[in-house]
Amino acid sequence: MPTDVEFFANPASTAGGDGTTPGTTGSTRAFVSMQAAIDGVKAAHGAMTTNDERVIITGVAGNGTDTTAVNAASADWVGDATRYLWLRGDTYNTIKGGAGYRIALDAGFNLPVLQSLASFVEVTDLQIHSTRIANYARGVALAASAKLKRCIISGEGIGANSLSSVFSGFTPIVESCLIDGWGGGGLVINNFVNGTVTNTTVANCLRNFDKIGTSGSNAVATNCAAYNGGTDWTGTDWTGSHNASSDSTEPGTSPITTDIDSADFADAVGGDFRIADTSSTLYNTGTATGRPALDLQGNAFTTNDIGCYAFLAAASGRIMGGIAGKGGLAGMGGIAGIGGGMAG
Questions:
Q1: Which of 116, 117, 226, 330 is positioned for an S-S bond with 232, CB 3.0–4.6 A?
Q2: What's the pTM value of the predicted model, to 2 decimals?
Q3: How many CB atoms neighbour CB 141 within 10 A?
Q4: Handedness of CA 75, 179, 258, 316 (dihedral sign)
Q5: What residues pair up with 180 in beta bridges, in sequence order?
């Protein structure tokens, strides 16, 4: 097995540390941004297949917003299926704007907030927000064999060419993610060959799930929810099962034929897309086949729920999807820190 080598990013830190601890003082203090960490360690650790390493860069939440765009170039990070660059937050997300490591900025015309042209990169437990209020805003762009897990990707962009997430290449994996508020495309799949999207919620985009590129490229979506898009599902070659929409465009077998609406969520207007209650169309109407182990909040799926949140009953003592039925109060509560043991 490769050796895990971990570095830290903390917006409350100052330049000059080597990033080997999450703190903000001393020579081992964290880097000031995720990009500073990438730049600071790539010369020594970017050749991961040669070094037999997996390089982990962990963002320390609760210390302000990271306002530097992230770009991991393919020439700097050479990996494979077990030796790769892993960008992650140290805390599970809750809802849009809630606790978690947040990267937010206007990256400029047609430039993503976070991108990697290196293969096999994994991005987990981050909040990625574009503040660009104009066309051609971009959220995330990832290449072949990338993994995007338990992330919130939000935007304010207007115009049909504002895109949340663009994946190009072979065998990418997207699971338990929330994408919300893009003037153009939400989850945009370009030449997405043998890729899978599971338990992901996309809302309030012109095209929520958008398949473009090569015909026959087999984008498999399972247990996914699309809500309030100009069109919820567009493009050809979507396969999979147990998907839901608010406009009857859901693809694949065993579709959820009841259109979802705002009452299915805790507070859709407020950006809280947790399941409202057990009468929600999203509650236990999916499939266990291909279901990820954890939802966006780091909770285990115990029922076959659709979308990025597992429904949690009040008896669990943790965050609920919602209280008092559809249209009632959104559930509140804290989140469990990831601590030393973080799921991939």
A1: 226
A2: 0.90
A3: 21
A4: positive
A5: 154, 203
Residue at token pair 């306002």: 67
The answer to whether residue 18 is domain-embedded is yes
pLDDT of residue 324: 32
Q: Is the pLDDT of residue 330 over 60?
A: no
pLDDT at 183 exceeding the cut of 90: no
Instruction: Report how many domains make up the chain.
Output: 1
- Domain span at residue 77 reads 1-90
Instruction: Answer yes or no: is pLDDT of 11 > 70.
Output: yes
Does residue 203 lie in a domain region?
Answer: no
CB crowding 275-310: b at 16 or more within 10 Å, else e:
bbbeebbbbebbbeebbbebbbbbbebebbbbbbbb
**Does residue 318 fall inside a structural domain?**
no
Beta strands in 143-252 (DSSP E): 147-149, 152-155, 163-170, 173-175, 178-180, 185-193, 195-198, 201-203, 207-212, 219-222, 225-227, 231-234, 238-241
Token look-up 């859709």 returns: 268
